[in-house]
Automatic annotation (TrEMBL):
Residues 1-20 are annotated as: Disordered. It comes from Discina gigas. InterPro entries: Alkb, AlkB-like, AlkB-like_sf, Oxoglu/Fe-dep_dioxygenase_dom. Residues 239-347 form the Fe2OG dioxygenase domain. Keywords: Dioxygenase, Iron, Metal-binding, Oxidoreductase. Its cofactor is Fe(2+). This is Fe2OG dioxygenase domain-containing protein.
Length: 348
């Protein structure tokens, strides 16, 4: 991948509050309403899976770099460590020993996709780290901490006795901070619908739209194994310091926005696991808006101009989670979810 040399400077942080342009909002709304059955016939939808890239996109996508497969496999093996289980490979065929291609799309310069980057066993290991280990650690805040006391005292984060919200009785209740505003919430309902994001490492303040200040040195440590995974694959692009893990169910959306609170122009790296999603991305002054179907295991990179692009998730496609993953960790939970890990560098 070419190194970021002509990176435009970050827009002012005040731009985080700006309204998205009409041309982005319209595409977002159109694809929010699209039927899943119509998508394979849509030549304007970029899709590296299914029937493959459409004629329309073939001329707009080019391969701009590669990751040496042997190197990636070492990184995956290191990440999975002792946790690799016999269920890991899920009966998948071995991949041929060729390098992994990185594709850039001409509509949004710097926007790159690596289809099917993460093998099934790495996807499961990453879910385990995020949802069994990091979610049990009260330092990594979630959307629910703003309104509820989470029963962390019932969980254990020690590797020998690790237990998670998936392991405790699902009828356990989260007590609201303000009982006038919220009713108690069961762990079952939390995991099924209400848990929408968790922040890792530098804790983003969603109200003030700010990260912790570098000088204060107060940031929560970013999980070292996840950092090694990202650096092993994208070391010339980003130093992972913060991440948002988004959890979506069919019917959930993410509105058009730009990620402009970071004081670094390093790329954003985004990994997706579970159900497919539609992803919209476009620049402020461009009528060319790209819509892509993101599948489980895909990596997306927003670098250079695309780093400050508007983007959104208008739709999660129900019943599209790969079969080998649908019952993770039990009872079809991932079959009803998409988990995204959006990794950021806060400062240079
Ligand atoms: O879920 C996604 O693919 C995008 C998430 C995103 O844009 C964000 O967390 O800022
Ligand atoms: Fe974003």
């Amino acid at each position: 991948m070419p190194k970021s040399n002509s990176v435009p400077p970050p827009p002012p942080v005040s731009h985080a509050h700006r309204a998205p342009p009409v041309h982005i909002r319209e595409v977002h709304k159109k694809y929010q309403k699209a039927s899943i059955a119509s998508l394979p016939r849509d030549e304007f939808l970029l899709d590296f899976g299914g029937n493959g890239v459409s004629e329309y996109h073939k001329t707009r996508v080019r391969d701009v770099g590669r990751i040496v497969r042997a190197r990636a496999e070492n990184v995956f093996r290191d990440f999975e460590g002792g946790q690799k289980t016999q269920e890991g490979a899920g009966g998948e065929e071995e991949s041929p020993l060729d390098d992994i291609l990185i594709y850039e799309h001409s509509s949004v310069p710097g926007f790159c996709v690596i289809p099917s980057l993460l093998p099934p066993s790495t996807q499961k290991s990453l879910l385990h780290r995020l949802l069994f280990r990091d979610l049990s650690n009260p330092q990594h805040k979630t959307n629910l901490n703003l309104h509820y006391n989470l029963p962390y005292s019932l969980l254990s984060t020690s590797p020998e006795t690790l237990s998670s919200f998936f392991d405790i009785p699902q009828t356990t209740f989260l007590e609201p901070l303000d009982p006038e505003c919220h009713k108690p919430l069961s762990v079952e309902r939390m995991l099924e619908k209400k848990l929408r994001w968790m922040t890792l490492g530098g804790q983003y303040d969603w109200t003030r739209k700010e990260y912790p200040e570098k000088e204060k040195g107060e940031e929560v440590v970013f999980p070292q194994d996840v950092a090694r995974l990202i650096m092993g694959l994208f070391s010339n692009k980003i130093i992972p310091q913060a991440a948002i893990s988004n959890l979506y169910s069919p019917g959930d959306t993410l509105s058009p926005h730009r990620d402009v609170s970071e004081s670094s122009a390093a790329a954003l790296v985004s990994l997706s696991i579970g159900c497919d999603a539609l992803f919209v991305i476009g620049l402020d002054d461009s009528s060319e808006v790209l819509v892509m179907r993101i599948r489980s295991g895909d990596a997306v990179i927003m670098d250079r101009e695309s780093r400050w692009a508007w983007h959104s998730v208008p739709k999660i496609l129900a019943e599209t989670c790969p079969g080998w993953l649908a019952d993770w960790p039990a009872d079809g939970w991932m079959g009803r979810k998409r988990v995204n890990l959006n990794v950021r560098q806060m400062w240079d």
